[in-house]
Amino acid sequence: MSISRRVTVLMGGASAEWEVSLSSGAGVVEALRAAGHEAQGLDVTRDLAALVSGLAEQKPEVVFNALHGRFGEDGAVQGVLEWLGLPYTHSGIRASATAMDKAASRAVFLAAGLPVAEGRTIAIGELAAGDPLGAPYVVKPLDEGSSVGVSIVRDGSNQRGRIVETWRYGPVALVEEFIPGREITVGVLDGDAAGPHALTVTDITPDAASGHDFYDYDAKYGDGGSRHALPAAIHPEAFERACEIAVAAHAALGCSGASRSDFRYDDTTCGDRPGRLVLLEVNTQPGMTPTSLLPEQAAYCGVSYEELCDWLVRDALNRAETARR
After folding, report:
1. Best exposed site among 33, 49, 68, 311 by fewest CB in 10 Å?
2. Is 306 a catalytic residue?
3. Are residues 212 and 107 in the same domain?
4. pLDDT cut 70: percent of the chain above it
């Protein structure tokens, strides 16, 4: 039997995704206890002193980072854990910060030769004056996850003014061409000495009948908001290529533990040929509820939710041990 560890699971946080993080964290605590660990949750807020105090009180051997969004996924809390000398799951400071910044990660993907959509950053006020790209196009915050703040501007719509008026995500936005077709995602685990490997490809279909025309926050987390099909029924060459791109993106960013790459796949006009794959982003802190996309893919590959949580803890400890040598 594997050795039991004292694990603190960070959950909650100060981002728009705090509720999702609480759900992830609760599931992880339960799974780690079932795996034989001494696991406790720690509800994180903006109070840094309370975080440090809570960690000092719980005295973990390793921290499971189940936070999402800003502060938890952008390198900030990773810096605190590094300062405290605590091993932690998932990616380190640099990979976390780069992946969370859509402009920075886009630059990394382009440098690595990975396919991204046409786009650029703009001052959000520019949107009121006119279309920065030909419609349809997507407007995204630079540093939010779970599709928070994402809007699609379609030809002839009057959305631009409303987006500017309600924007609360900083002075700059990313605008990208809208890619028709499907939303697909690929989970990646670091694995053994052979390096990171892809799990499988999931095809995500938002429920249009519920008002979801893309994979937005409600489609991700609302009851019946979307359907997941795995393995995705797409062209075999596109399937293989999506897995290759996800592994390459994981490596280019310097991710650790687990990541999940999200794509648009346009096979609307390609007939029996593989369609166009476009990498949207890499999630360094994928959702970790038992029904989230990464655990779903792991289960398909024969790795239970409990085993996945346990593996992430042991991967963090192994990386910390390697760094000390």
Report:
1. 49
2. no
3. yes
4. 92
* Kind plus residue range of the DSSP H or E element containing 200: strand 197-206
Distance CA 189, CA 208 (A): 32
For 8, which DSSP code? E
65 is catalytic: no
**Pairwise CA distance, residues 67 & 285, whole Å:** 7
Active site residue 287: yes
17 assigned to active site? yes
**260 a catalytic residue:** yes
In this predicted structure, what is the pLDDT of residue 208? 57
Is the entire prediction scored with pTM above 0.85?
yes
221 is catalytic: yes
Query: Which residue range forms the structural domain that includes residue 191?
Result: 99-115+180-284
Residue 164: CATH number of its domain: 3.30.1490.20
Catalytic residue among 70, 260, 264, 276: 260
If asked whether residues 109 and 123 sit together in one domain, one would say no
Residue 246 and residue 105 share a domain: yes
pLDDT tens by residue, 96-120: 999 999 999 999 999 999 999 999 9
